[in-house]
Amino acid sequence: MSESDVVTPGTRIGSVDTHISGRGTYTRDGRICASVVGRVVTKDVPNQDKKIIEVESKQETTVPQIGSIVLATVVKTTTQFAKVDITCVEGKALETTFMGMIRQQDVRATEIDKVVIYESFRPGDVVRAVVISLGDSKSYYLSTARNELGVVFGTSMAGQTLVPVSWKEMECPKTHLRELRKVAKTI
Amino acid sequence: MSKIEFISPEGLRVDGRRPQEVRKINYRLNLFSRADGSAYYEQGNTRVLAAVYGPRQVTRRGASKHDRAIINCEYSMATFSTGERRKSAKRDRRSTEISVVIRQTFESVILTHLYPRTQIDIFMQVLQADGGTRCACINAASLALIDAGIPMRDFVVSCAAGMIDGVALTDLNYIEDSAGGPDLPLAILPKQNKICLLQMDSKLTIEQYEEVMQMAVEGCKQIHAVLDAKLKDVTDQLVNKRKTLL
User: Fold this and answer.
1) Within an 8 Å CB–CB cutoff, is residue A154 touching chain B?
2) Strand order in the sheet with A25-28
3) What domain range is B100 assigned to?
4) Which of B25, B46, B138, B218 could be a cystine partner for B130, CB 3.0 to 4.6 Å?
5) Complex prediction ipTM
6) Which residues pair with A120 in a beta bridge?
7) A70 with A111: CB under 8 angstroms?
8) How far away is chain B from the Cα of A91, in angstroms, using its nearest Cα?
9) Closest Cα to residue B53, out of B141, B156, B160, B184?
10) A58-71 pLDDT, tens digit each
């Protein structure tokens, strides 16, 4: 199978002896087959003689998976958890949102029993978080217990965009009022 | 009683086709902007629409599966699709049965394990019914799923076959369908030579069954050739226009 050929699902494009199955492909009986319509692309892997074979397709649907970094909007806060809408997975915007939950013990890494949800997130904040488990039947469990995770965008009481001042405070540029948040460290 | 002549002395059918010939196929992809994938499919005078949504968050609570996506199918017929206008064709026994059959077909083909805790919805509507609507719906759904970019094991194609006056015929139209002979809808995975749907309600001898089955497989292969060629053509054009598919 040569490069840049358009293939349809089920077409055999290689063998596991010569290639590694990548996106848009699956393996069956030692053969690599296309699972979507698109162009065949091979990529080199450092320190490995096998190449990755992929099918580059028009659109790819992404869903949150364990370990993926997501962006989510806070919808509701309680004393136990903050309910969020996951809108973006690994830098890719989703067509529809998925429900997520940041529990009290997952907000930060230290002093987890002293966390107050309302002093960490407010409804409307945009939070960068990591998916820690697929959670219960309704929502994914997210965590912000890392320096680079937390609120990345929030609005103050006066309606201005908050400016981070420390890892737990953000300031309103208009009123200079400081509000409490679990702030994400800018990378 | 004058009986309709289903096979002329020259061996041609009511609409002029030969026994192993499928009707003219035409389709279009990406019709709707709200759906993730959609297709309009016509096979002779049978015309269907299919729209695919997802993978998206499961709407019915408790239905989600932790290790795979669930698939919802809904088959319906437009009130104006048949000769006599029907009041409401929604949720009757027949469409429920067809919805289930189509769902089972696609459950075996879509790589559902890639999208845990999500659902994929497939909606199909028959705009004009002229026999073989369930097969046309499977083909349309298959194209809509491809348009949505949902990974599948193979390109499912479907075709029905039957037997009238001892002659096996592929892709029956409405007149042939109402002749009362056996009807055998079949869906196959053409690249793997596997069957993913096979139905038959009537009784046939083994020899006749083999003949009808062979006809259905031939029909599926013809349809696959047409769909596959056009799909490659369309994708090639897209690639050339945009230089990339992404």
Assistant:
1) no
2) A12-15, A31-34, A25-28
3) 18-245
4) B46
5) 0.83
6) none
7) no
8) 15
9) B141
10) 666 778 888 999 99
